[in-house]
Amino acid sequence: MPEMPEVEAVCRRLREEAEGCLVSRARVLRAGMASGDVETACSGARLERVERRGKNIFLHFSGDVILHVHLRMTGNLYVVPDHRLLVSTVRAVFELSDGRGIVFEDPRALGRMALVETLPELGWEPLDPGFTVAVLAGLAKGSKREAKVFLMDQGKVAGLGNIYAAEALFRAGIDPRRAMGTLGKARLARLHGAIVMVMSGAVETVYEEWGRPGNFVEAERERLQVYGREGEGCRVCGRGVLRLAQGGRSTYFCGFCQR
Predict the structure, then answer these.
(1) Bridge partners, 66 (sequence order)
(2) Which residues are catalytic?
(3) Domain for residue 46, yes or no?
(4) Mapping DSSP to helix (H, G, I), strand (E, B) and coil, where does residue 13 land?
(5) Is 142 helix (H, G, I), strand (E, B) or coil?
């Protein structure tokens, strides 16, 4: 599944290239991947705003139409110069009045689109200016959940996925198994700073170098401190990076640097 930085990069590209454009015709090319009459709702509508919440994309069209797009494992949403020239893995196309097209490409056909009336309730965006140390402390107060599992709860911090939760905990020097509610003010401040740092850095890397999903691990490989590096030397102390299972996902950490 694409991580939040990839999804944000997709949204930034769409904002730059397609916001304000008129959709002359919308076509869903794979049955079952869209909920609601997307073709009727979006044809003749103008794309007014592209919004991201967590890993979810919301396309706001004129006429109060909201299209929820989830890329899943291999999905991508981007603009092509000619809507008539499509590769076989395109599952939907929004033909623009200027001849271009917004395509939903998905080789494994796992992505989904759905017309919605309201946006889901999610947690704080890690790059939202309102997400402060005090907010994080309030969320963590009294929590007995392990720090890594807590950070991946989309009702707490939206979009902080498996990779960057592990990276933030490493940079903050916090053992992923520590109960979130036991962290003092200093540790919470370090964790907050680490979350903002890793997420903002990842967004810029993916956006500037790739701007499309599928390559974020390669783009970020040199930046990642622990994720995917089991058995390799910690970049700080040299001891082997460890791996454990938490919430059905792999957690990578340094048993010496993280306490």
Answers:
(1) 60, 116
(2) 2-3, 55, 249
(3) yes
(4) helix
(5) coil
